[in-house]
Design a protein that fits this description.
The structure is a single chain. By secondary structure, this protein is of the alpha/beta class. It has one domain: archaeoglobus fulgidus dsm 4304 fold. Strands 1-4-3-2-5-6-9-8-7 form a 9-stranded mixed beta sheet, with helices on both faces. The chain binds 2 DNA strands through strand 2 and helix 2. Pfam families: Endonuclease_5 (PF04493).
Length: 234
DNA sequence: GCGACAG
DNA sequence: ATCTTGTCGC
């Protein structure tokens, strides 16, 4: 298994400088989200986890992408990218903080990432364009979002057994689902990113949680980006 | 106007 | 996200 580490390239000249500019970019891209394709079936090809860690004191960011064989969940390849924070954390604008690092790490891969699983939301977003959808549109790849918190959305309690679901609601609109990945454990919040439908996004999430609440993809990416940050900061 | 708010 | 000890359990 091969691990590559790269430096994040300079931001594009047109990278949004403030919240207003960032929202304008979202409005220009949000119409390109594809949510009616079923997407790849679980257990086939590759599944890639993405996560990012920060040291806000030193203004350093580290992203990790970990490619798994979808059938065995064995690590196939991984990459990290380290650089300078691109945007402050603003709820609803997370993609502008995380994307430059994530894209740099993805570019360093030598294999097809397959389905990309993000730590956060897809179309469950105030303008239906969260991190997973943004990453999907920019790369053209199938993506889903699996978040640890319900953000601003409402939901009923899913059934207590693994596999239980409940609609995730923005007012009356269904934007995703709360999904119980382990018996009796707090649910995760799944939404469509790009080129995958919700039923398949849920199936993928269950396939990736044979043992823990969070998908193996995010668990491994989380461990790797933290290690990369420690190394870059040391 | 105020509070809440993925990571 | 990040700051943080001990502790219960497999």
């Amino acid at each position: 298994m091969n691990t590559t580490t790269v430096t994040i390239p300079p931001l594009p000249a047109d990278w949004p400088a403030d919240e207003t500019a960032a929202r304008a970019v979202q409005d220009a891209l949000r119409t390109r989200v594809v949510r009616d394709e079923p997407g790849p079936p679980p257990g086939t090809g590759h599944v890639t986890g993405v996560d990012v860690a920060y040291d806000d004191e030193r203004d350093v960011v580290a992203a990790a992408v970990v490619v798994l064989d979808a059938a065995s969940l064995a690590v196939v390849e991984e990459a990290t990218a380290v650089g300078t924070v691109a945007f402050p954390y603003v709820p609803g604008l997370l993609a502008f903080r995380e994307l430059p690092a994530v894209l740099a790490a993805l570019d360093a891969l030598t294999v097809d990432p397959g389905l990309v699983v993000c730590d956060g939301y897809g179309i469950a977003h105030p303008r239906r364009f969260g991190l997973a959808s943004h990453l999907g549109v920019v790369t053209g790849r199938p993506t889903i979002g699996v978040a640890k918190n319900p953000f601003t959305f409402a939901h009923e309690e899913p059934g207590a057994a693994r596999g239980g679901t409940a609609p995730l609601l923005d007012g009356t609109e269904e934007v995703g689902a709360a999904l119980r990945t382990r018996d009796g454990v707090k649910p995760v919040f799944v939404s469509v990113g790009h080129r995958v439908d919700l039923a398949r996004a849920l199936a993928h999430t269950l396939h990736l949680t044979p043992r823990y609440r969070l998908p193996e993809t995010t668990r491994k990416a989380d461990a790797l980006c933290r290690a990369a940050l420690r190394e870059a900061t040391a």
